[in-house]
Each structure stands twice: as structure tokens, then as C-alpha cells.
């Protein structure tokens, strides 16, 4: 029996996004689910900084098409023999695994333990904007920073979210506000500041200026939590200066320079990383927590508590539109998420 084929967008060469060969249309074999895998018919995808980092120019050539894309909303078409959480016809959303082929293809395999039921009140494109950023925001706030879900326990506590207008920040602001924290977001342009306020931040400061005087101007000496979503090394001294004694700092952005952890010592402050692919990459015992948290995110969306962060939609899903999405993301000036729908 001949193998079925499907459309996909990927790369063989790692090139600048202006090069038309940086992302190309292709036809490849349609995969077959085994074990705990679901075969998903991809309806919509979104683009994240990880896509542009993986695609960035480097001296390497792939012998087979490398498919990127770590945000998918779609429909379960087939299930592997060990699947217990889903069945064909289920509408789902997820971010996938960095060590497996991405979701920029008509059909995609994903482990059911990192998949959630799609929110019912939004469409596939709006749902595709959420998984990677929602998982990152949720794990950063609740697993890494150890923030309580109990509003009463968070009363009077402050969180500073650096880079609050981006994909992760847009979700983190809403989640932090929902659990009762006082939320201070950072942004640098009028449109991004307005977006952060619209998402629920109590205050917005500029991350190109010193944090401490800006905090003092709005009546705060320090903050209990810092969630850094932008240029860790650039903001390191500012973060160390404003973190409260015994406070916690979490970053999702790799640093090009060594960080002076001694700055945190006399405050007994904590620094922790968040990388949302850790659980799927290392097949951790608690990998299924991403299934649970995505379902919680879906509930919050369906209750109207959490809004989608989709800001721009492109159609169809093809190499030309994906190159444009990568180009926009690489400007560093996007607000919210860029999504693509329909092959």
C-alpha cells in the first residue's frame, strides 16, 4: 500500500528570512500514530520566537525537510493504541515538542499528554495563538515562581512582567491579574503600553529606563516577583535592584552574558528558568501537567476570563505567509501573536 502524502512548510538550509529558500513548500509522507500519539488535522498555527531562533542562519544542511511550528489547533483524526484521553473528532490545541517535527504541516503527530481540549468559544486561529505562550506563562507563574492560585494569599503582592506586550506577556498579565496580584507590566511604545493596560495590567513602566525610580513614582519600593520575557542580561541589574528580600525572579530568555548571581545573595532571592519544552523533551514523570493546564486555560477562555492574544491572521498556511510571519516577528515590534489558518 502506498504511503499517503501531505503538504508541509519547512527548510533544508538555514538562511536569512529574506531568502525565498529560507522556508519552502513541500509534499512529504503523512505520519501514522503509534503509542500515545494523536494524528491531528492541522487547522491553524501560530509563530513564536523559537521558530525564528531554530530557523536562523547557520552552517548546516538538512537531508530531509525540517518542519518548524510549535503552536497548533486542529482536530484529532486518528489515535495510537495507548491513547486514553482523546478520540477522533476532538478539537484540540497544543504546543508540541522541540525534539519532534513541528506542526507546520497538514497533519501532525503529538503525544496526548501535552494536548488540551480546544476552547469552544473561539475559532481555531484564535486557539492556535495560545498554547506555547499559555504553557510558558502558567509554568513560569505557578510552577517556577510558586505563585498561589488563591487570590486571598496574593493580596498586596506585586509582580513585574518585563516585555508584557508579547505573546507570553499578554497571557501572563491576564493570569497574574486573575489570581489577585498587582500587575506592573513593561512596554516601550504607546501601542504596546495600551495593549498591556487592555490585558489587565494595573501599571505600565518603560523597560528602557531604570525600574526603581519608575516604581517609586507609582508608590512601590520593590516587587515580590519578576517574570522576565525580554533580554535577561539587559535587565539583570534592574531586576536585582527591585526584587524584594526573599523574592523570586523567573526568565524565559537565554542570556548571551554571564549573570552576576551575587547581586541576589543578600536578599536571599531566587532565580529560576522556565522552558516550556522541558517536560516533553525529557519525558518527565509530570509531563501530563501540560494536558491539565491547557484544559484549565480552555476553561478560563470559555468563561471569558482569558482572552486570545491573536493580533494578526494570515491565510493560507504556506511558505510565503510563514516567511512574512517570521519577518514580522524578527522586527521585535510585534504586539500579540501572528496566526495562520488553512492549508
Automatic annotation (TrEMBL):
Residue intervals of the Enoyl reductase (ER) domain: 18-340
InterPro entries: ADH-like_N (IPR013154), ADH_Zn_typ-1 (IPR014182), ER (IPR020843), GroES-like_sf (IPR011032), NAD(P)-bd_dom_sf (IPR036291), Zinc-ADH_QOR/CCCR (IPR051603)
Coiled-coil stretches: none
Record keywords: Metal-binding, NADP, Oxidoreductase, Zinc
SMART domains assigned: PKS_ER (SM00829)
Pfam families named in the record: ADH_N, ADH_zinc_N_2
GO molecular function terms attached to this record: oxidoreductase activity; zinc ion binding
Similarity remark: Belongs to the zinc-containing alcohol dehydrogenase family. Quinone oxidoreductase subfamily.
Database matches in PANTHER family: QUINONE OXIDOREDUCTASE
Name of the featured protein: Zinc-type alcohol dehydrogenase-like protein
Source species taxonomy: Bacteria, Bacillati, Bacillota, Bacilli, Bacillales
Amino acid at each position: 500500500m502506498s504511503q499517503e502524502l501531505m503538504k508541509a512548510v519547512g527548510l533544508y538550509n538555514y538562511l536569512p528570512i529574506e531568502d525565498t529558500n529560507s522556508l519552502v513548500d513541500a509534499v512529504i509522507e503523512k505520519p501514522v500514530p503509534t503509542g500515545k500519539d494523536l494524528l491531528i488535522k492541522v487547522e491553524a498555527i501560530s509563530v513564536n520566537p523559537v521558530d525564528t531562533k531554530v530557523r536562523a542562519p547557520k552552517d548546516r544542511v538538512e537531508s530531509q525537510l525540517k518542519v518548524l511550528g510549535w503552536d497548533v489547533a486542529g482536530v484529532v483524526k486518528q489515535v495510537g493504541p495507548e491513547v486514553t484521553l482523546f478520540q477522533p473528532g476532538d478539537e484540540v490545541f497544543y504546543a508540541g515538542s522541540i525534539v519532534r517535527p513541528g506542526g507546520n504541516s497538514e497533519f501532525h503527530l503529538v503525544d496526548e499528554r501535552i494536548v488540551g481540549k480546544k476552547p469552544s468559544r473561539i475559532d481555531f486561529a484564535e486557539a492556535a495563538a495560545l498554547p506555547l505562550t499559555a504553557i510558558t506563562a502558567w509554568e513560569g507563574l505557578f510552577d517556577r515562581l510558586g505563585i498561589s492560585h488563591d487570590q486571598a494569599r496574593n493580596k498586596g503582592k506585586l509582580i513585574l512582567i518585563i516585555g508584557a506586550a508579547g505573546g507570553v506577556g499578554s497571557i501572563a498579565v491576564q493570569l497574574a491579574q486573575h489570581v489577585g496580584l498587582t500587575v506592573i507590566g513593561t512596554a516601550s511604545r504607546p501601542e504596546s503600553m495600551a495593549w498591556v493596560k487592555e490585558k489587565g495590567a494595573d501599571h505600565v513602566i518603560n523597560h528602557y529606563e531604570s525600574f526603581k525610580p519608575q516604581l517609586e513614582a507609582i508608590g512601590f519600593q520593590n516587587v515580590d516577583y519578576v517574570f522576565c520575557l525580554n533580554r535577561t542580561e539587559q535587565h539583570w541589574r534592574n531586576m536585582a535592584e527591585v526584587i524584594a528580600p526573599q523574592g523570586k525572579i523567573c526568565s524565559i530568555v537565554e542570556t548571551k552574558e554571564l549573570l552576576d548571581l551575587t547581586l541576589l545573595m543578600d536578599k536571599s532571592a531566587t532565580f529560576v528558568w522556565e522552558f516550556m519544552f522541558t517536560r516533553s523533551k525529557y519525558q518527565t514523570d509530570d509531563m501530563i501537567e501540560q494536558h491539565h493546564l491547557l484544559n484549565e486555560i480552555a476553561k478560563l477562555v470559555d468563561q471569558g476570563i482569558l482572552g486570545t492574544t491573536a493580533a494578526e491572521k494570515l491565510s493560507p498556511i504556506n511558505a510565503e505567509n510563514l516567511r512574512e510571519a517570521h519577518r514580522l516577528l524578527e522586527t521585535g515590534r510585534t504586539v500579540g501573536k501572528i496566526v495562520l489558518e488553512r492549508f
